Amino acid sequence: MADPTAPNNPPDPTGRQTGFLTVMTTTDSETKARKLARGAIEGRLAACAQISAPVTSVYRWDDAVEASQEWQVLFKTAEARYDALAAYLLDAHDYDTPEIIATPITRGAAGYLSWVAEETS
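Below the sequence we write its predicted structure tokens.
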């Protein structure tokens, strides 16, 4: 069996090598954040979604500097589920250009990562 703490290569329950990601998006209300999170979990696109808020985002949009309150949603998922998760977020999100950013999990507890693999399979 492969080393479950090896960078970005922990095994899933079948023993295949797979990577894991955290994927972040933001939205303008807690209700919308909960809906995005629940849909991803129900669809097994992510094992867990954490909602943090409010955060203040400052950005340029339509040639103006804007500031708004947003709720961050951080999903934990298998790398193999990224395309499906991103497609879901693009479809379910009401922003014209939603933030969808994936960051590799380079290390993690073997039991937790096995759970993520199981919940997203």
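The CA atoms of residues 48 and 76 lie 5 Å apart.
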